[in-house]
Design goal:
The chain is mainly alpha-helical. The protein is 70% helix and 0% strand. It is built from five helices and no strands. Helix 2 packs antiparallel against helix 3 and helix 4 runs antiparallel to helix 5.
Length: 135
């Protein structure tokens, strides 16, 4: 079930959403909550899942700076009880890779607001760090 949700978020990102839009920010929050839930349920590598979750959360905070507060679709933390670590890791890795590419492309796009380009570049760095942390 969790893998399906992560893959669905990955597909939405492939449509090229606005990096500050609801879809991208909801996918970021889903990735963060998934990594956090994996850390709670992990029997090994709990610290690596936690560090990945914290890196994603830092990216979310950086992205939110300067944006108006707008409600995002509510996403409950996934229930990962009994789910194999690999079944979560690979779809999460794909989602984080897509998100990182989205924000890197936005940061490199000419003509964008410089303050947003800096924010998008920072998000990319945090997501890349999260990817390195995944066990």
């Amino acid at each position: 079930m969790t893998e399906d949700v992560l893959r669905a978020a990955h597909r939405v990102l492939s449509l090229g959403p606005d990096p500050d839009g609801v879809e991208a920010r909801a996918a970021l929050r889903l990735a963060c909550r998934t990594a956090d839930a994996a850390a709670d349920d992990a029997t090994t590598n709990q610290d690596r899942w936690t560090f990945a979750s914290l890196s994603i959360a830092e990216g979310i905070d950086r992205l939110a700076e300067g944006l108006p507060d707008e409600p995002l679709p509510d996403t409950d933390p996934p229930d990962l009880a009994g789910v194999a670590e690999a079944a979560v890791r690979e779809p999460l890795r794909a989602l984080l890779t897509s998100l990182s590419a989205l924000y890197a492309t936005a940061a490199d796009r000419p003509g964008g607001p410089p303050w947003r380009q800096l924010a998008w570049a920072a998000v990319t760095q945090h997501l890349d760090r999260a990817l390195r942390e995944l066990p």
